[in-house]
Amino acid sequence: MGSIEFKGIYKSFGDKHVLRGVDLTVKPGEVMFIIGQSGAGKSVLVKHLVGLLRPDRGRVYLDGVDVTDFTEKEFYPIRKRCAMVFQNSTLFDSMTLVENVMLPIRKHRKVTDEEAHSQAMEQLQKVGMQRYADRYPADFGDGMRKKVAIARALTLDPEYVIFDEPTTGIDPISAAMVDKLIRHLADNLGVTSIVISHDLRSIFGIADRVAMLYKGELAEDGTPEDFKKSTNPVVQQFIHGRPEGPMEEPN
Ligand SMILES: Nc1ncnc2c1ncn2[C@@H]1O[C@H](COP(=O)(O)OP(=O)(O)OP(=O)(O)O)[C@@H](O)[C@H]1O
């Protein structure tokens, strides 16, 4: 239960070859970080999981099932099992925080409003936002809004969660809280996660494994310890944040 497998994924947009044969397996309950420069294709890769993008070549397996050629309709249940928290996951400004979190519950679960409210409050509590339930998104900064977007993504008890830069642009305490939540989902609920991140503190704090994308391929795939010890100059440049090295400025 809960594995993810990308096999030989190629994806181009016009003459831009973003992915050139990516093989990556994520085991059930694992927290896999995907790192790489801006524009390396991290978001493009994970969008293949839920059919938001289709590969030019290669296969995608979820829980051992080949979903590559699934129709849009066949992807609906997959999207319930696999939640995505995008970089700019937006909340509805006209709704309170708890109303935002209630949305997927109302849509997918046949429960009373009272029950939906109580389930949404439980999710808000997980991210430490329950006391602000009746306030509006505009009252908060990016960090707190991100936590609510995460709470909303978790409402349907997904087996997989994809986090796209969950700690970018948020304060260190909120970031640590998000990290703790990701680890909690894996360790206590068996959730399989992919986390796209540039945040070295998160990577070395909570990752089980790390995969680095470079020039459309995996430059390295291993534990955080493997990354520290890696002699690959691209890996070393990234984890030490050095301006000089084989990686150029992203275009
Ligand atoms: N739908 C699309 N149409 C055309 N080009 C796209 C599309 N989606 C992504 N790209 C291009 O693919 C490349 C990889 O984008 P992607 O968003 O995966 O980068 P990333 O590694 O997630 O970077 P970042 O860290 O900046 O989020 C970029 O050059 C982007 O412009």
Automatic annotation (TrEMBL):
One of its GO terms (molecular function) is ATP binding. CDD domains: ABC_Org_Solvent_Resistant. Residues 4-240 form the ABC transporter domain. SUPFAM superfamilies: P-loop containing nucleoside triphosphate hydrolases. Keywords: ATP-binding, Nucleotide-binding, Transport. This is ABC transporter ATP-binding protein. It comes from Persicimonas caeni.
